[in-house]
Structure formats: structure tokens, C-alpha cells
Amino acid sequence: MRSPIDHLSSRFAIDPAPLETVAARYPVRISPHYLSLIQEPGDPIWLQCVPDPRELDDDQLPDPLDEERLSPVPGLIHRYPDRVVWLVSNDCAVFCRFCMRKRRLGQPLPEPRESREAVLGYIASRPEIRDVILSGGDPLMLSDAELEAILSALRGIPHVELIRIGSRLPVTLPQRITPHLCAILKKYHPLYLNTHFNHPLEITPQAAQACALLADAGIPLGNQTVLLKGVNDDPATMTLLMQRLLAIRVRPYYLHQMDLVQGTGHFRTSVACGVGIMAALRGHTSGLANPYYVIDLPGGKGKVPLLPETVRREGGGLVITTYTGEVVEFEDI
Ligand SMILES: *Cc1c(COP(=O)(O)O)cnc(C)c1O
Ligand code: SF4
Prior knowledge:
Layout: H1 4-12, H2 17-25, H3 32-36, H4 44-49, E1 76-80, E2 83-87, H5 112-124, E3 131-135, H6 144-155, E4 162-166, H7 169-172, H8 179-185, E5 191-195, H9 205-216, E6 221-226, H10 235-247, E7 251-256, H11 271-281, E8 292-297, E9 302-306, E10 311-314, E11 317-321, E12 327-330
Parallel strand pairs: 2-3, 3-4, 4-5, 5-6, 6-7, 7-8
Antiparallel strand pairs: 1-2, 8-9, 10-11, 11-12
Bound molecules: pyridoxal-5'-phosphate and iron/sulfur cluster.
């Protein structure tokens, strides 16, 4: 098969050389489905998946969230008291240019069987872990058999109440969501899946069908969006995205401020931009369409939600600004 860069350079008559230079440092992968969504150079799909020379002159840190330091065994991140993130794959259908785990993409994982046993042993020995989040890369890049081995091993640990999967494949490789996969997943409830749509153009009939199969298997679906300059950093695009997600039974969960990850600086927006988007959502459309806007603080200090300022204390009461900008006094006790 032709490489995505060859495909793009012949389809849009662009010089492949600068893209190849970036690809030598940060690998490129674009699934045929995602490639087919590109309409023109620089559009919101293009920006997310086509390498950009600006990736190479960004000197932020590769791992600002200190995930490697918070890793008690390789592949596991234990930052919060009752839940862990397990990086079960370094593979994705598209290598997103803004990925927070850009440092790992396409790298081989350590010997999978041994490292899986170490992770499972750690989780089994910590009764406080009640929520396990499978992430990566993309967990659904594993085969059905590998995935089922992981799920059934986790279900063998009595204190693991919740299993969550973070996967972008409903967006980037929707044909991976098969009835067979859903039949496996539904055996391990309560199982939640957070997917990752960033733009309304990604909500294709195929993606909608993938989400329908998952929802029909009883899997509560959430969405994590990354706030990306030039892609979705305006209230109209974000409102449409959130509304269209609800229409395919996907509940917006987080809107992420860009992490300060090396090679991704050109996607950063101001925090004021994110807060402005939240103000445009709240009250103006369904409450269900409002994600939490979060900053994942450097150094592994955790995710902190940010909201537009609506309340201040004055005398014995509160002065509250409504979504329309009206200022109302509210008596407090
Ligand atoms: C985001 C994250 C979680 C999950 O956080 P929730 O707010 O429960 O969704 C857990 N561990 C790490 C390291 C994370 O980054
Ligand atoms: S799918 Fe997720 S893990 Fe994979 S490259 Fe994109 S953002 Fe990163």
C-alpha cells in the first residue's frame, strides 16, 4: 500500500520532503478511513494527522505529566488513590500529531506477557484500586483474543469494580467495532468506553454505526476532546460537535487543555479560549452537551476542572452571573 505521505503529495500536489523529515522523528500513520475525510490541505482532519515542520522546533518536555515517574510497574500509571491507567498498546490507527503520549507512539512495548503479569500482580495486591482504565496507544488495536485475556484477568480481581477503555478507533477505524468485539466487551460489565472525537466532520455514518453497536451492547459511551488550535477552538464548532455526539449517544466527558508535550506546541490555545467555549455551551444548549474543561497539570498533579467565573461573595450573600449575563443576588446561609 502507498504511504499516506505519497497519497497526499500526489492527491494535493504538495512537496513530500518536509513531511518525510518530520516523519523520521515522529512516525506517521493515517488509516484509509481517516485519510478519506481530508477535503483540502490544512483542514481540521489534515491538521490532526499530517506531519507539520513545527513539530520539530518545539522544545517542551516529552513527558511533562511525569507518567514514567508515577509508574510502579512498566505500563501502569498510578496517580490517583483508587484508579490506574494501564497502557496496553503503543499502536493506533492514526498517529495524532497532538498526542500526549507522542513519546511512545510506534515504539515496541516490553515483552507483553511478562509485563502484563507484573501489572496484574500489582493491581491484585492493591485492594484500593477499584477502577482500571485501559489506554495506550489504543487498546482496541489488540486482537479480540488479547483483549479478552486482559479483560477476563481483570474481572478475576474482586476489587476491580469498573473497567474503562479509552479508544479513538470509533473515529479513526470504525470497522474495528464489530459485533464480535461488542459481544466480548459486554461480558465484562460494568465496562465504560471513552472515545475521542475532536471535530464534527469526524462523525461519519461509519463512526455513528460503530457507536451504535457499542451503545447497543450496553456500554456507556463518553468522549474526550482535545482543544486544538485551528481544529475546534471556536464556540460554534465545539457546540456542533457536542450536540452531534449526543445524537449518536456519546456523552461529552472531558475537554482537555493541550498538555505541554514536546512536538505539539503549535496546537496550543489560551486557557481563556477554553473558558470562553465553556461559557458558550452552558445554558445555551443541553446541559448534557457540557464536558468538564480540564487542565492536566504538569508534574502529575492531576486534572483540574476550569469554569467561567459566575459567583462572587458580597456581604452576606452571593452575586451570580447567569448564562445570559444577567447579574442576580442570591441569599446564602
Ligand atoms: C485522567 C487520568 C485518570 C482518570 O481520571 P478520571 O477523572 O477518573 O477520569 C486516572 N489516572 C491518570 C493517570 C489519568 O491521567
Ligand atoms: S489515538 Fe489517542 S493515543 Fe493514539 S495517537 Fe491519537 S491521541 Fe494518541
